[in-house]
Batch of 4 targets.
Target 1
Amino acid sequence: MSLRVKQRPKNMTNTKPALTVKDLSVVFPESNGQSSPHTGLDVLDRISFQVHPREFICFLGPSGSGKTTLLKVVAGLVQPTSGHVNFMYHHRPKIGMVFQQASLMPWRTVIENIKLPLELEGIGNIKAHNKAREMIRLVGLKGFEDSLPRDLSGGMAQRVGIARALIHDPDLLLLDEPFASLDALTRERMWTELSRIWQAKQKTVIMVTHSINESLFLADRVLVLTQRPGKIKLDVKVELPRPRNDDIRYTPQFGKLARKLREAIE
Amino acid sequence: MSSLKRVKNILPAVLSIAFALMAWQLIVQWTQLPRFILPAPADVWSRFLKALMDGSLLYHTGITLVEIVLGLLVGITFATITGYALAKSRSLEKVLSPYLVASQAIPVVAIAPLLVIWLGDGILSKVVICALIVFFPVLVNTVVGIRAVPSALYDMMHSIRATRLQILMKLEVPASLPVLLGGLRIGATLSVIGAIVGELVDAEQGLGFLLQLGDFQYDTSMVFVAVFMLIALALFLYGVVTLLERKFLKWQA
């Protein structure tokens, strides 16, 4: 299993991209409502990139670089001012999204929160329930099925968010700084968890973060965004072996990549 | 054990009611006021039994309850629909809010006679008065409740391509339910006032009619009975709302 995963990035460039973003710009209208192309707030400036099937890419950038907006455009939550987002699939892709705050419904239990995407698709309750149990096992929340979000720690809530984002078998998984609100130790544990889940589920992933370590630990490719208006400044392949564990951060290769990314950010 | 606990819970209320009744009885005895000014608790109790036995009390209470419940239903329906539309559209809010605020400057008591003239002295005019008095607090709470739904949850719902109906049923309704039920709690109490105001203007039936009849006939005990029935109605409605809250807001406790 891990051997196959390790080789994957090398064959990837031959496949058709899962997602192609071309010349994408986003201008937010001024808050006074008078919008014209020249008076708005430039958030993203002619962004172009491709993501291959089952690739894990990471956008790295300072706050205010339009990272979240970029994800929202890909998710269809924000309309781009110009440019295109094209998917390999004929249909609009199914999206699974994990947010900065877990964004759980406080009135639903863990299992009910995780089931939500299947409910919206009209999948029968028994089937949805079984699938949700499977996801709960995957993210390591067994025993918390009937807990309410208010009883969960930040890390547990994010696991619920991840399970919910994966349950409907999305074509594309979007992660918006999912671990930013967690403490350092929990965050690092979640990296290992996410790494494991990703290898088990083989999803195409776009993640945004402002943590260099996080991006190097998880991604196949890291793209650095500049300050607003966000432009792609650097596109680096992360050829670190998988599965990655904590030790990888002390390798010279990791250090070199980290330095390169840090220089690009500044 | 649990029944003992329950006794402990209601004991203060029972004691305070017993104390109030005793004080009332003492005041009657000390002041020697005639019965048509201040009847003793025992007078009110026997008047209550008499009205209960001849069926008039239940009949009139039933009429008032019907007016209140219909008024609540109509008021809540219009208020939540209007409130939802206002919450969703700032421009609609700008157009409608002067009227809504103006409508609140006029006490319902002032237009109740008009409504009775226009709609007759039957149940209809009372239902409309109830609905009007319930409308505003429920409307305001609907707007507040819908606007308070976190935008992150909207994003989440859109990312999994929820339809408008799914967003309404699975997000907006449950998320705003605590505030909506708060509006209902205020509305339920106000609707009792609405029904009585309408009945006092002109009616042939209902607790307000009974109250006025007692007043005209110097049957003060009857007035007291009617007032206590109103209190009972208000408590009943309050209890229903509390039950709803307990059922639907378990996650909040």
Target 2
Amino acid sequence: MDDIFAGGFTDAPRQSADAFRAALEAMARPGTRHALQAQAPAPLSPAAAALILTLTDTGTPLHLAGAHDTDAVRRWIGFHTGAPICPAAEAQFAIGTWDALHPLDRFAMGDAEYPDRSATLIVEMAFGRPTHRLTGPGIDGHLDAHIPGDRPVAFPLGLDLFLTSGGEMSALPRTTRLEAL
Amino acid sequence: MDDYNFAYLDEDTKRMIRRALLKAVAIPGYQVPFSSREMPMPYGWGTGGVQVTAACLKPDDTLKVIDQGADDTTNAVSIRKFFQRTAEVAVTERTQDATIIQTRHRIPEAPLQPGQIMVFQVPIPEPLRFLEPRETETRRMHALEDYGLMQVKLYEDIARHGEIATAYAYPVKVEDRYVMDPSPIPKFDNPKMNDSPALMLFGAGREQRIYALPPHTKVESLDFEDFPFVAGKADHPCAICGSTESYLDEIITDDAGSRMFVCSDTSYCQERSVQ
């Protein structure tokens, strides 16, 4: 899909409300999967496109990592959200594959007085078999899920992740403890 | 209904609040600053809660609004009507039927369920504010996890009154890290926050702060080994439904000192009375 004008929400208030609630549920219940749909130029997945439409605007610097930094993606994001594209260190949001996002210590983790000033990474991947056992806030006991790998955390500092796979999305806040299966 | 945007707020504002909510959920108990808007109601009437609810509502939600447990008092009725008009969502008084419950100073008696969202109206989000008025200092105290002052305050309660006299807005510690103000709910409700199946969101409009408790989060009321936390209530049955489990309001009925105790949760009380 190369038409940068297509693929946005047709009824933004209601569609973004539905998409945000999926994102909120995902962040509140780490590892659970939620459906999300919007159409954007490749390689942006439908779920990642919906997150970008729902959460970013002219006030949120966005980093495109690796193969996601294409002219079509830049123009699509520019038209639909106006989010400025920026280097990793300045990013409030970043999007790319797990490998392309590395090294993760390029991203803001917040500081002791403002741990919320940290980047949110949208990790494009393909969900498969569970790789890790998840415990922590939002999880009743434990949950097994497919996680791309560990990330730097020094609670309350850390990175919060959305994991997107086609039209599905889950989240991994900094509080979730991982144990490889 | 095209006179307002869905759920009143403009989309830029909702995105800003939504980003703050996601960080609040990711850092349980930490107060995320947000750019609070003027709402068509005065500060102190739940502008923080209303903004959080507006950012969360989706068209198929069922909303319940309570004020001190009651569905039928001015604050609850006006906020419920506000969202009926601006978001055209379904409303209910039954806790079990609601997907979002906006509350002023109570947690319902009926057990909350997975998937439900509680939205608390918060007047003063900073639990240390009455002990240290400077925001720069309280922010540093949270950063350094320096909560000795709060323990001293509870100790002084014991020294003066023989017990911890704080009866509402009783401070809690979240996941062994942040001390948090649970909003002015009675301490009777504090245990309901620990390991709750529901997501809890807190909005302070005037003070411009949002914070959150994800489901199944460890929430402990502060206390001492020799003076453990006690979730107290009036030692009476409800005069209407007879419940001995629920939190009670004391109602003065004449000038001669007569009084009665009734459930503060009107939905719970009504359902029990009908049975």
Target 3
Amino acid sequence: MYEFLTGAGVWIAFVIFAGGLFVRVASLYGVSRQKDAVFYNHTNAFEAVKSIFYWLIPWGSIAARTQPVFSSMVYLFHVSLIIVPLFLSAHNVLLQEAFGVGLWSIPDSVADIMTALMLVAGVFLFIRRLVRPEVRILTEIRDYVLLVLTMLPFLTGLLASLNIGPYKTMVILHVLSGEILLILIPFTKLGHMILFFFTRAFIGFEMGGRRGARTW
Amino acid sequence: MPDEKQLKARIKKVNIKKIKNVLETLDGARIKTWLNICAKCGLCAESCFFYLANDKNPEFSPAYKIKSTVGEMYKKKGDVSLPFLEASMEALWARCTMCKRCSQFCPFGIDIAAMITIGRSVCQSHGFVPEFLAKAVENYRVSGNQMALTKDDFIETCEWMEEETADEIKGLTIPMDVPEVKFMYTLNAREPMYYPQDIAQIAQILTVAEESWTMPSEGWECTNLPMFAGDRTLAGIIVENMYQKARDLKVDKILVTECGHAYRSTKYEGPYLSGYPDGIPPIEIIHSVELFCEYLESGRIKIDPSKKLKEPVTYQDPCNVSRNGGLWDIGRIVMGYLADDFREMSPNKDYNHCCGGGGGYIPMGPEYRVKRMVSGKIKAEQIRKTGAKLVIVPCHNCFDQINDLNEEYDLGIKSVSIKEVLCEIMMIPDKFKPDEE
Amino acid sequence: MYDKILFCSDLFVSTDQAFLNALQMANDSDAQLLVFHVLESGHRYSGHVETYDAEVVSDAEVFDKIAGNLKKYYSKLISSNFKDKIEIKATGGVPIPVPSTPDIRYEVRGGNAVIEILRFARKEDIDLIVMGSYTLGVDDESDEEPKVEQNGDPKVEPSLGSNAKQILLSAKCPVLIVTPPGQRLNIELDD
């Protein structure tokens, strides 16, 4: 089990993740060239960058400033979600062993704190979904499931790192949930990890480029 | 309640194929992406004045309006019921003015208004369109304008206004179908119908500025309610009528009256609707506000300093002139010339709230008036907070809505168009002053 | 003296006197009398005329029907009033001959009353506009309820309606405002 998950499983997950995202973006690009061709006349790189940039910096958008607590949580959530898996020393050690190269690593204590914060933020997002009527009305079961699935690798990783619970089981769950998450990304709303840039660029063209209006 | 005629117009049985066809035609990569990646964060709710004015009822939040209508249509691949279409009609017309403010609040910049348009097209395909709006669309179909004015009526009104105004500005004419001039003026059908003085006013301004312009005898209608009624084909024809007339007259530019959605239609959406592959209008489009700004800055129109407005004034940013037209700064330059005590609403400029009359809401008529007044609460409060006595409004829709809000919420204000103010306070050069008798 | 006289009907009995005066003047001048009514639109966007409470939506058919009703009503008014009332009230008892078939045309339009009356007057080259003094007896600009006399008859205080005021001040031809005898204001001078 462990061998499969850490061997072929990783490969399968990454191939589906990368391939799926690629196919999704490529097919959307194809459709857009065919059906939304007219919009390509209004492309504007500067406006696209602005439209993306203001939503990447903390409280850069009017919406984020309207709900500062929520947007802070979202920010924590996403920053940890990207930084921790990429720059965790344990992950990089594995990369080093397998390919002889690894990324720069952050100290484990920092990673633990970030993971904990990410989980707090995740719980906050979960509760917010339940509590705020305008969010609850939009939420379906799968939105809760996806949120939990996103947090699961982090929860199990943190528990393993802190040696809480049966280590071996935690690691297996960690790898398994991580792989499931990767596989789901291209096929769910989590695809926004890539598509975010496209939709933001589009609204940047339409509202920013053609009208000069702020989209943040 | 819809009357019998309207019910007759509605299709009795859902034609799934037809709905599917509409959905598929309009289903681009944008729609596929938007419908899928919405994170359901609910941030759009706070942007929407319908939501804010209706006690934060979550059913009024932009994302829910899409989820419960267009989202369902795509999910069920067109297999929807008549009661569903009825409910969608309510959500798509009575709870959205397509002001696009939610797109500014969406982390993914989802263009919710663009999706509302698709929903409206689906409802329209089965006759589910608010009655008065449908009647206005019928007028466009038979006459090319929303009031079903005949060509003769229009020309006569222009002649009438020329006579009326000759007493005030010497040598004033309203040129009709003069080719190769700089501007072809296009207007809202309610000007010849209900407010012919608007025609007199623009003629005064253009005469004093010694502009080269003409009124077209056809293709003068710049409003486009079919665009808001989901009738994309007719909407394209209306815009094309105007472009064609401008080409026939070989004018440089089309000048659009103080109307919001007319500008959005002629400059931004019209080229899409009438199928210009580059998405750009074939002739340059100028909004009246831009021209007035140019006149004031260049001194072609001068304001009489003794007549400059003294009372507190605020400026209504029409969605389709400001956020969706990019002219908010231009509007403020004009205000600087017109008023001593100018006050901003909050939020304003491209972040401004819709007045609640846009997107076809005002033309939906008395049937929806109560709802319109409820949703207009946000705008009424915005205006009240400025303490302004005069609201300058470069849009016919906003004008009507703000007048109604004034009554409903006892705001004690008056709304006026820029041209009305200009005509009152501009200096008339001696050569245009009528001879002493 | 006049070729064309325009009588603006507001569909209230209180303007009957104005109509009779208009008819009499048309008769005196051998002029055509145009009876004109505007269906006021409560909202000014769709180009369709409807009452304020959105009950009636009018189109060409409705205009024709109303014109027909106007004709019926005023024809009856002429036959029942001309011989006695008008001779006594409007002419001070001097009998005037009435043409057996007075030249009257009935027209109905939709829109804003002031604009449509002025537009129509210009188009038809009208020499004189005749109107009643007020509509419902309530000044359009005030919220006052119509006054009720002690005997219970809803006798309203006459006032110059905002439409009449506007027409009076904007028309290119003379305008005649007629207040019916039973409702004339007592002479009271403001200090």
Target 4
Amino acid sequence: MKYDLVVVGGGPAGLAAALKAHQEGLEDILIIERDTVLGGILNQCIHNGFGVHKFKEELTGPEYSQKYIDKILNTNIQVQTDTMVLHVTKEKELHVISASQGYQVIYAKAVVLAMGCRERTRGAINIPGTRPAGVFTAGTAQRFINLEGYMPGKNVVILGSGDIGLIMARRMTLEGAKVNCVLELMPYSNGLTRNIVQCLDDYNIPLKLSHSVVKIHGKNRLEGVTIAQVDKQLKPISETEIYIPCDTLLLSIGLIPENELTRECGIELDIRTKGATVDQNRETSITGIFSCGNVLHVHDLVDYVSEEGEIAAIGAVNYIKSNKKSKKEFAYTVPMEGISYIVPQKINIGDQDKTNIYLRVNKVYEQCVISGYINNSKIYTKKYTKLTPGEMVSFNIDKGKLSLSEQDQIKFKIEEE
Amino acid sequence: MVDVAIIGAGVVGCSIARELSKYSITVSVIEKDSDVSNGTSKANSGIVHGGYDSKFGTLKGSLCVQGNSMFKDLNDQLHFGFNKCGSFVLAFSSDDMVELHHLYENGKKNGIKNLEIVDREFVLKKEPNINQEVVGALYCADAGVISPWEYAIAMAENAALNGVSFLLNNKVTSIAKKENHFTIQTDKNTINTRYIINCAGLYSDEISNMVGVNRFKIRPRKGEYILFDKEYSGLTNSILFQTPNNGSKGVLVTPTYHGNMMIGPNAEYICDKEDTSTTSQGLATLQHKVQKTLKSIDYSKAITQFSGLRAATDTYDFIIEESQVKQFINVGAIDSPGLTSSPAIAVMVSKLLLNAGLKLKKDHTFNPNLTPIIKVNELNIHDKNKLIKKDPRYGRVICRCESMTQGEIVEALHRPIPATTLDAVKRRARAGAGRCQGGFCSPRVMEIINEELDLPVLDINKSEDKSNILIDKTKKSMEVHL
């Protein structure tokens, strides 16, 4: 089987990419989705707040994805659900398996990787204690409640104030559970401010900053957790230990781009984003393979995920149509003081003038400036009243005006106003 | 009345059950937990040891080497998976080298053939990523890794197919000695048996006490481990021990059979036989000690931490003997190298039974082979497609981290020793054993358990009774069902 474009993943990034590629005139497009339905994680995000930027209205997750799905079903875009991509090769062969089609090899002219991300687990942060039932990642608990109709517990502690943790604090409260508290290791929350207000403050759920779970108790089902305050080095202070009886611990301790296919394919990864290293078209180190959405870097809002899917789609369509194999010359973006990562990591200087930059800061900053420099000369600056690690910063730079040359480094940093 | 009752379905009990299933006798295995291999047997290093460090002249010394030599054939028959990856004991000083020579001499006396002292270059060629300060090593090509629970399950399943009955969820509460037999009372059943084999692991002292034999006391020794993402596979290739010195064994780095890197264990004597918790001190000790072998490890790549309890005693050796109460055989104090020794222990126990008067006549219907769960991953494309055409469930990936299909999970639920819990599925079909630790697949695995076993979703346990995953329906879904 051969397609011009194969999109791996039918969540918001993949849907936006496939639709945009179609709108750009590409005919032969396949979306491969491992779940039985399109929509990805949005299917279980039944709260609202999606689409404020993109559609200027507050939609639920399923409503947001349905807007794309409806349009896609009116096109000739092929969709293969309940299908797992096992390998992607440099030659753009996709090895896939499904109940209906068996094991297939699909050939593509271009590939868009849009596999999304997964949740960090207890193992990744080394929480000691027993291993009872009742310890869930927040997203798994969300699926049980919103899609399966079951309660994972009634007396809850949540570790991590990422957005899913905050949303689940409210969700479990609405379902009649008692949410004792939300603990956050850092001295600030990684969640959106609106979620702290709407999900915790409105329900009087305490947010304990600089706190963590230091031990898990219970043989069969969770019986309680020991929590403690942490010092500046994030080490628990033993005198502050408190035991909280509970039957459920939800973990909202970060998301990891799911790049096993990417890594196996030999695509270069950025240790900061844990996603592929890409240029402004979201093209990876392997020509014709693009990456977008949460598999590239974890986004705060789905609106930006869709936007990035469209950027990757345009890149893929141009790649397929141009056939030009010209040598690429790159300038690089470099995160300096205060910046934890930047996407894209490189800028193909022979291509497109407008480059959309996404970045995240490494802690909370107030009254600050983000500046960009090439060889000590300032090429970009913008003021912000407040920046937090939980909220992505997005802006455009006009490459044409910068007259970039190969190997130039554009250094971005936080400066005091 | 059965001829033999085996108390405890860990690796030792399952090995003995399989060995005895070769004979025309009736055998029952009594296990307190919901699954076989649920205690010490599921939480250890998973290593088939060479046998050089077990003292010459002890049961450990002879049974370990003998057990090691049996694994290849056992794996050919039962297909639990055995990777003979070899082991190094790494030396970082001249003192270490002296100790290696002691181990080498001891190993030779134990009868190990493929054992040699190798130089730094040899080690670094095989293990280029380890601490470059290594000066030499003891290399044993015959050591390897297995998945300990899959081994025990395979032994148990083969035993079951050859007529051994398994009574799971049966905790022995008392044993009465009658004139020519014993009456074992469990919390659910009464079993009359002519012979008893006590391989109750951590509880073997208490079982022995039930017939008045106070021969030994188990002192649980906790060992903690950290298991890493497969992204780290290939960083090391062999089992890497540190040279023991001043009574400290050091920690090991090993690939698991399934290709995850694992580090551990520490060793701490504790009192509570149920305390399999990990501790911040224990995990910190591992992280500190392992630096000798691997200088830097990214602990955010860890996928789980666990601990296992060794059924240790104050004395060094295994206790495998007919007790002063006739026809009651103790198989106790089986700590390391118990896993490696288990098939040899089983043979030894059959001889003890013979000596104790049990007639062991070969059962000519005994089938030594076990058909394993189909591993879709390991089939070629042609066979994959043939299988999926016949049964599409083998094309539907449920566990994305380990690429396990619905077909494989369904098989696990209908094996000779069927899985009924999430952990039991994980141990047979890997679903939930990968990097997301069941985050994505557990709802779908529960759906499959519910459909296949007709078990209500709310009754599905993680492992033992009262370890239910879910506690209630949501308000909305209750309304819908009203």
